[in-house]
UniProtKB/TrEMBL annotation, chain A:
It is an enzyme of class 7 (translocase). The chain crosses the membrane at residues 6-23, 30-47, 53-75, 87-109, 139-160. Its main location: membrane. Its EC number is 7.1.1.-. It comes from the Bacteria. It comes from Flavobacterium cauense R2A-7. It is a multi-pass membrane protein. Belongs to the complex I subunit 6 family. GO terms for molecular function: NADH dehydrogenase (ubiquinone) activity; quinone binding. It catalyses: a quinone + NADH + 5 H(+)(in) = a quinol + NAD(+) + 4 H(+)(out). Keywords: Cell membrane, Membrane, NAD, Quinone, Transmembrane, Transmembrane helix. InterPro entries: NADH_UbQ/plastoQ_OxRdtase_su6, Nuo/plastoQ_OxRdtase_6_NuoJ. This is NADH-quinone oxidoreductase subunit J.
TrEMBL record, chain B:
Its main location: membrane. Pfam families: NADHdh. This is NADH-quinone oxidoreductase subunit H. It catalyses: a quinone + NADH + 5 H(+)(in) = a quinol + NAD(+) + 4 H(+)(out). PANTHER family: NADH DEHYDROGENASE SUBUNIT 1, NADH-UBIQUINONE OXIDOREDUCTASE CHAIN 1. Its EC number is 7.1.1.-. Belongs to the complex I subunit 1 family. One of its GO terms (biological process) is aerobic respiration. It comes from Flavobacterium cauense R2A-7. It is a multi-pass membrane protein. Keywords: Cell membrane, Membrane, NAD, Quinone, Translocase, Transmembrane, Transmembrane helix, Ubiquinone.
Length: 169, 346
């Protein structure tokens, strides 16, 4: 049962991910991206990670919503936009992506799953209580760094939009 | 054992589904009656006694209308719009505790479709999907007014979701759980969260109005500017679905308000009732009490609709970003300080 579901979900994930980059219409590709993210949330649910699945839906589907709004607002949708990029930049993008993929793969292969220790202690590692404790004790510093990074990005966005207004005036 | 649980939950889900539908149906009737009452009219009174069959007549009319689909390249998305709106409006009810428990045939029946650890997050997740129905429908209509209305609805929902989430964080800090069942149980007797979190409640209430696209925040379907809004191009039952989804989500958001802030199924003396009258009777009264609270909030929605005129769009954005969010953040900080002090000195 779980295996069949996994294969269905995996084919949806891969199919919609491919369609996201192959579709010409920017709105369609945003919608395919949403479906792709939902199927990833489904994978999390299969792994019994409810918190992760829901946060994934909230954060990513909300983000895609904003992406959609911006696509509608900023792009000319009357004619199908086809951006012409030189072959060199296409090759560069592919290589860069492959390198990132290798780094991610290498990093993930070297990780040690900590699930075993939770199985032994009998703690419910899915629960948000355990997750919160781990996040704010063991990984306190990276967690705070991530929030500072988000804050910086937010201030940057505000600053950019402010500057534009001053120029117009 | 496994199959009995599945059957039990299945029956329960069907009951909730039917209930949401009936409540949404009679909300349309109630809306007309309340509007008539507030404007000193009589309201619908032809179909059945007191016009009670009016929703059925409306449904029949919508079903028998001609189905018209505009000439658009995105036919599938056009059809998907109302479907998404409707399914999302019905999905939220899965995690709501409608009552404590009943004893049927010697076993405890928990009155909740599913009790997940992160129910509150689930509600926010579903809410963030909700806007897709409107966005996709409005965009696929291939109509400038529909698109404009969908854009308004989308940016409004995103803005108010932030304030809503922040308002709930203060509540979660107090209750220490994301499970709606535990939040409901903590408010036993008159320990309702509204007395401890009045500011959070008001922010949450205002945001629910915006999230359900109700007046004074119904700029998405502002007739004077945008014809009918995002459902301008829809006809027959597809438009009915959009309208129906609005009423269904109004019912659900009233339920969430009642559960989070107004004590859910709790009423003063529930423990005494459990001791003296038995679990079944006490909790049946609890369900009835929850429905009274829900009906009050639905009435409140209508009351506001016919009292406060629509905001301007910039006023709406200012209210969301410059008023509600700072107040919600201040509320979080104050709640944190109070919890800390209470831990130290009490």
């Amino acid at each position: 049962m779980g295996e069949i579901l996994f294969y269905i979900l995996a084919s949806i994930t891969l199919g919609t991910a491919l369609l996201t980059i192959l579709t010409r219409n920017p709105i369609h590709s945003a919608i395919y991206l949403v479906i792709c993210f939902f199927s990833i949330a489904g994978h999390y649910l299969l792994l019994n990670a409810q918190f992760l699945a829901l946060v994934h839906v909230i954060v990513y589907s909300g983000a895609i919503m904003i992406l959609m709004l911006f696509t509608i607002m900023l792009m000319n949708l009357n004619k199908e936009d086809e951006t012409h990029k030189s072959i060199a930049s296409k090759i560069a993008a592919t290589i860069a992506f492959c390198l990132v993929g290798i780094v991610l793969l290498a990093g993930l292969l070297r990780t040690k799953p900590v699930v075993e220790s939770y199985f032994q202690s009998g703690e419910d590692f899915q629960s948000i209580k355990v997750l919160g404790k781990v996040l704010l004790n063991e990984y306190m510093v990276p967690f705070e760094f991530a929030s500072v990074l988000l804050l910086v990005a937010m201030i940057g966005a505000v600053l950019i939009s402010k500057k534009d207004k001053q120029k117009e005036a | 054992m496994e199959s009995t649980i599945i059957i039990e939950k299945g029956i329960f889900i069907v009951i909730i589904f039917a209930l949401t539908m009936v409540m949404a149906m009679y909300s349309t009737w109630a809306e007309r009656k309340v509007a008539a009452w507030l404007q000193d009219r009589i309201g619908p009174n032809r179909a059945g006694p007191l016009g009670l069959l009016q929703p059925l007549a409306d449904g029949l009319k919508l079903f028998s209308k001609e189905e018209f689909i505009p000439d658009t390249k995105n036919k599938f998305l056009f059809l998907a719009g109302p479907a998404i709106s409707m399914s999302v409006a019905l999905m939220t009810s899965a995690v709501i505790p409608w009552g404590d428990k009943l004893q049927i045939g010697g076993r405890d029946v928990i009155l909740q479709a599913t009790d997940i650890d992160v129910a509150l997050l689930y509600i926010f997740g579903v809410l963030s999907i909700g806007v897709y129905g409107i966005m996709i429908g409005g965009w696929a209509s291939n109509n400038k007014f529909s698109l404009m209305s969908a854009m308004r609805a989308g940016s409004q929902m995103i803005s108010y979701e932030v304030a809503m989430g922040l308002a709930v964080i203060a509540l979660v800090m107090m209750s220490g759980t994301l499970s709606l069942r535990e939040i409901a149980a903590q408010q036993s007797g008159m320990n309702w969260n509204v007395f401890y979190q009045p500011v959070g409640f008001i922010i949450f209430l205002v945001c629910s109005f915006a999230e359900t696209n109700r007046t004074p925040f119904d700029l998405a379907e502002c007739e004077a500017e945008l014809i009918g809004g995002y459902h301008t191009e829809y006809s027959s039952m597809k438009m009915g679905f959009y309208l129906f989804a609005e009423y269904a989500s109004m019912f659900i958001s009233s339920t969430i308000l009642a559960v989070l802030y107004f004590g859910a199924y709790n009423y003063p003396g529930i423990e005494w009732a459990v001791e003296n009258w038995g679990v079944n009777i006490a909790n049946s009264i609890g369900i009835a009490v929850l429905f009274v609270k829900i009906c009050f909030f639905i009435f409140f929605y209508m009351w506001v609709r016919w009292t406060i005129p629509r905001f301007r769009y910039d006023q709406l954005m200012n209210l969301g970003w410059k008023m509600l969010i700072p107040i919600a953040i201040a509320n979080i900080v104050i709640t944190g300080i109070v919890i800390l002090l209470a831990d130290k000195f009490l």
